[in-house]
Amino acid sequence: MKVAVDAMGGDFGPKVTVEGALKASREYKIEALLVGLEDLIKKEYDKLDHSKSKVTIINAAESIGMGEGLLSFRRKKRSSIRIGAELVKKGEAEAFVSTGNTAAVVYLSKKILGALKGVEKPALSLLVPNLRGLTLLIDVGANVNCRPHHLEQFGVMGHIFMESVLGLKNPRIGLMSIGEEDSKGNELTKEAFERFQASPLNFIGNVEGKDIYSGKADIIVSDGFTGNVALKVSEGVVETFFYMARTELMKNFFSKIGLFLMKRNLRKIYKRIDYAEYGGAQLLGINGVCIIGHGRSNANAVKNAVGLARDFVQNKVQEKIQNGIANISYAIGKAEG
Amino acid sequence: MKVAVDAMGGDFGPKVTVEGALKASREYKIEALLVGLEDLIKKEYDKLDHSKSKVTIINAAESIGMGEGLLSFRRKKRSSIRIGAELVKKGEAEAFVSTGNTAAVVYLSKKILGALKGVEKPALSLLVPNLRGLTLLIDVGANVNCRPHHLEQFGVMGHIFMESVLGLKNPRIGLMSIGEEDSKGNELTKEAFERFQASPLNFIGNVEGKDIYSGKADIIVSDGFTGNVALKVSEGVVETFFYMARTELMKNFFSKIGLFLMKRNLRKIYKRIDYAEYGGAQLLGINGVCIIGHGRSNANAVKNAVGLARDFVQNKVQEKIQNGIANISYAIGKAEG
Hints:
11 helices, 337 residues, 2 domains, alpha/beta, Isopropylmalate Dehydrogenase, eleven-stranded mixed β-sheet, 11 strands, homodimer
């Protein structure tokens, strides 16, 4: 299996992505196509152990920075993200992994690869750790304006991902709202609620913001605006808390010793709640496998993202999504007719 | 000044509200009208020190529980929340404070007191602590479906609250969105963005979920659906983190000692980030002062909520909001004409 890896992605670029790709190639027995500035990649590659790994470098003369916008995505015709997506389009790679600018990967993948048949809006999903396991949030930012049937499609795609990649049978789907009662929500969610109830999915009703971490649902569906705000709020809280803990606790002698004593365990907790560790976000519904890792991914997180891409391919997630969307359309067509 | 206090509110009812009202009466030199089941209130009252306090008990035969819905709000004609709002309506109290069912207080206050002239949608605002000071979130749940001009009115009301109650000159207003660039957002926020830019408010542009705690803006405006989700996500993260810290860290000997050593400081941090301490949410734009404290408020938080109500009345916030809304309509009328 060949997986294209955006070597220019992430906060650290080739310094981290090349090592991650090498590790992935060794561990998952895949061929990594490292896409980016050849010289930079080669420099990193030469420093590392490349036994038992298969890596090919594909030159891409441009790269898209984390802060760049739509104009750059369009203008840079030889960006590593564009070329990575094109490798999938041409069948030269079976998946594309990037830890680069999320908006760029979403935009260029949609544009170059297009959506799977029947999928109206490909969506970005992300696994976040909860108290008992993992919750899939979908959509976390690909679609800011949604109609009720889009949310239902997100539910179907999430269901298929959780079943086929995580092996979770009949995952519980919750709808992000502002209260658990059926009647709570805005115009969008109230209508989506009814569609979910009429669907064959395992719909458990409305959930609230706090349920992202409670483990009450395996999948939480929302429009991409709400999902993105929710995700960034939670990042903000964690950052603020760790910042406050560091600054406030270091002021006090006893707390300082206390912090020292629990350092190792605190790091374990942080690692558990840090979703960068879980392989990145999945662009579901696109006609090609595309995984987007967090910008601050280390080599291990890049490796995990490649592993997730491999699981996608091996489990034929794309094919299953296309069938799932067709089936739910059929089931709903029947219910309505 | 007379302030009606819902004695039946909160997770602990009269056990906490009566003490809070007594403290408030003493500290702020106001008369507290305790609304609720007379016997229960009297029982708590008799246990406490009531020197230098002025308290009147107003009997209300019914109370609305935290989990109850719209049907109860309507059916219970003698609920403490309804009677509290009616005291303001009749001019027998200058403000109403409740730590009860938020949806009930919003619904009954809107119904009984109505909106201030020119205000289309009264909104629920909440002060949350950030790294440097306090950020006002508006709306956190009163209006789930909003139009762009509603968000603008929220901005005006938030501006007036921050200026007149917190004494913050020309507060910075951010619009909750999914990226800082002007072009980011959904249909609602993009249009609201333009309205804010044309307004005389100190608009700093789009902010993200993480900025609730960064202190980048003094006021963050959103529709009530988004605001409520954001707030509950952040509650969930904090709860989860403290739960994990407790359970994970207690498993390890060194961490256990560490936790013991920093206990006092951790509690200080928790208190600082716990917005229940900051006096509760404000129902802005209603024709009467109405403060809604958090359900888990202790006596001190109830006292703070009454203090906030007094600040509202003393600073003539209602009058200023009415003028502010009229002025912005005028300013915008001019700009558009």
